[in-house]
Sequence to fold (133 residues):
Amino acid sequence: MSAVLQTISQAVHSVPAGFPAAANESSHEQVSLDSYLVSNPASTVLFRVRGESMTGAGIYDGDLLVVDRSIEPVHGQVVVATINNDMTVKRLYKRAGEVKLQAANPQFQDITFVESDEMSVWGVVTFSLRRWN
Fold:
C-alpha cells in the first residue's frame, strides 16, 4: 500500500448510529490505515469490483476490495476465486464435500462446478472500501 496513507486522526470514542451523543473534539489518537487494512503486505492485493452480484454482502460496483492471499479460506468467507482462468468475487460454500461460489444477489446464480472446471480460491476479502463523495 502507498505511504500516502501513513497515519490520520481517529476519535477515541465511537459515534452512535442511533441517537446523537455529545461530541468530544479533543480526544483523538493516530491510526495507520496501512496497518488497519493490511496485516500481511506481501500477500495483500487491491481489486476494484465490477458488477452487482455481491450487493447483499455490502459489496457494490466500484468498491475497492482488500484481498489477503495468506488467509486459508473457509466456508462462509467472501473470496476472490478463479474459475477456468476467470476471476470473480463470491461467498465460499464448502460443506459435506460440496464446493460452490455463492452470489449475494438473488438476480445472480451460484457457481457450481463440473469435473472439467478448474477452480481455486485466489484470496480472502478482508475489507470492502467505498467512496461516499
User: Anything to note?
Assistant: The chain has two domains: 1-37, 40-129. The domain at 40-129 is CATH 2.10.109.10 (Umud Fragment, subunit A).
